[in-house]
Automatic annotation (TrEMBL):
<dbReference type="InterPro" id="IPR020630">
    <property type="entry name" value="THF_DH/CycHdrlase_cat_dom"/>
</dbReference>
<dbReference type="GO" id="GO:0035999">
    <property type="term" value="P:tetrahydrofolate interconversion"/>
</dbReference>
<keyword id="KW-0511">Multifunctional enzyme</keyword>
<comment type="function">
    <text>Catalyzes the oxidation of 5,10-methylenetetrahydrofolate to 5,10-methenyltetrahydrofolate and then the hydrolysis of 5,10-methenyltetrahydrofolate to 10-formyltetrahydrofolate.</text>
</comment>
<dbReference type="Pfam" id="PF00763">
    <property type="entry name" value="THF_DHG_CYH"/>
</dbReference>
<dbReference type="Pfam" id="PF02882">
    <property type="entry name" value="THF_DHG_CYH_C"/>
</dbReference>
<keyword id="KW-0028">Amino-acid biosynthesis</keyword>
<keyword id="KW-0486">Methionine biosynthesis</keyword>
<protein>
    <recommendedName>
        <fullName>Bifunctional protein FolD</fullName>
        <ecNumber>1.5.1.5</ecNumber>
        <ecNumber>3.5.4.9</ecNumber>
    </recommendedName>
</protein>
<dbReference type="InterPro" id="IPR020867">
    <property type="entry name" value="THF_DH/CycHdrlase_CS"/>
</dbReference>
<dbReference type="GO" id="GO:0004477">
    <property type="term" value="F:methenyltetrahydrofolate cyclohydrolase activity"/>
</dbReference>
<keyword id="KW-0521">NADP</keyword>
<keyword id="KW-0554">One-carbon metabolism</keyword>
<feature type="domain" description="Tetrahydrofolate dehydrogenase/cyclohydrolase NAD(P)-binding">
    <location>
        <begin position="139"/>
        <end position="280"/>
    </location>
</feature>
<feature type="domain" description="Tetrahydrofolate dehydrogenase/cyclohydrolase catalytic">
    <location>
        <begin position="6"/>
        <end position="120"/>
    </location>
</feature>
<dbReference type="InterPro" id="IPR046346">
    <property type="entry name" value="Aminoacid_DH-like_N_sf"/>
</dbReference>
<feature type="binding site">
    <location>
        <begin position="165"/>
        <end position="167"/>
    </location>
    <ligand>
        <name>NADP(+)</name>
    </ligand>
</feature>
Length: 285
């Protein structure tokens, strides 16, 4: 029996509609949420991501600013821009598009952003709050994955979630978010011995490694829920994930497509975080 599709496009569209309605209400109260994105250098993928974010803001009625800086910008100048945005009442969310050029310390940049405006959810204060299940701005891709599973009506409590990948951006936080929802979580990575022994036990498998079609049908158990975070190119230069979709889909109960699965959820959650940051600022004022 073919798997049900976890349709990130459809779920993100309904989230975006809810956000647009809330933004409209806030504007009625004289408040417009604002997002600032800093883009350093000429990385094409980064430019594309930023354009998509600008477009999303426009569609949802969120004010947006894009600050483009040259690749050789001094770290101090970038930090100075962040201090200005931290103090700017028009801006509720700040995002620095990663990766940054090698001469800039990413940690220092992330730590300079006001945690209340950190819509990427990368600031150590937000990470710590997420770990302790306090109110926080959550990282967009992990929270998008959780939201997608929840909105599909899948019960997470007691499920065994296996995460392949331990990056600070996806792997570690996504496991924590599922743990916060009472799942049992196992982390696997490049040094894990006998990976299949773990993946074959997963009720929910989250693949976030960046290796094209690495997960095959024999790596999962019958009826598993498979979430593919990978964005790779296959041997025909076609976009694909970390999961061999055609082979795995017949065995899974739910699966995310690539593209159209996790990707659209990430931008929807960025917009959601911008709205949350705005509401948090209104409470403080």
């Amino acid at each position: 029996m073919p798997a049900n599709i976890l349709d990130g496009k459809a779920i993100s569209a309904s989230i975006r509609e809810e956000i647009a309605n809330e933004v409209l209400e806030l504007k009625g109260e004289g408040v417009t949420p604002g997002l600032a994105v800093i883009l350093v250098g000429d990385d094409q993928a980064s430019h594309t991501y930023v354009r998509n974010k600008e477009r999303a803001c426009e569609q949802l009625g969120i004010y947006s600013e894009v600050i483009k800086l040259p690749a050789d910008v001094a770290e101090e100048e970038l930090l100075g821009r962040l201090h200005e945005l931290n103090a700017d009442s028009k801006i509720n969310g700040i995002l620095v598009q990663l990766p940054l050029p090698k001469h800039i310390n990413e940690d220092r940049v992330i730590e300079t952003i006001d945690p209340a405006k950190d819509v990427d959810g990368f600031h150590p204060i937000n990470v710590g709050r997420m770990m302790t299940k306090q109110e926080a701005l959550l990282p967009c891709t992990p929270s998008g994955i959780l939201k997608m599973v929840q909105r599909t009506g899948i019960d997470i409590k007691g499920k065994h979630v296996v995460v392949i990948g331990r990056s600070n951006i996806v792997g570690k936080p996504v496991g924590q978010l599922f743990l916060n929802e009472d799942a049992t979580v196992t982390y696997c990575h490049s040094k894990t011995n006998d990976l299949r022994a773990y993946t074959a036990q997963a009720d929910i498998l989250i693949a976030a490694v960046g290796v094209a079609k690495m997960i095959k049908a024999e790596d999962i158990k019958e009826g598993a829920i498979v979430i593919d975070v990978g964005m790779n190119r296959d041997e025909h230069n076609k976009l694909c994930g970390d999961v061999d979709y055609d082979a795995v889909a017949p065995k899974a109960s739910y699966i995310t497509p690539v593209p159209g699965g996790v990707g659209p959820m990430t931008i929807a959650m960025l917009m959601y975080n911008t709205l949350q940051a705005t509401k948090m600022a209104m409470k403080q004022s």
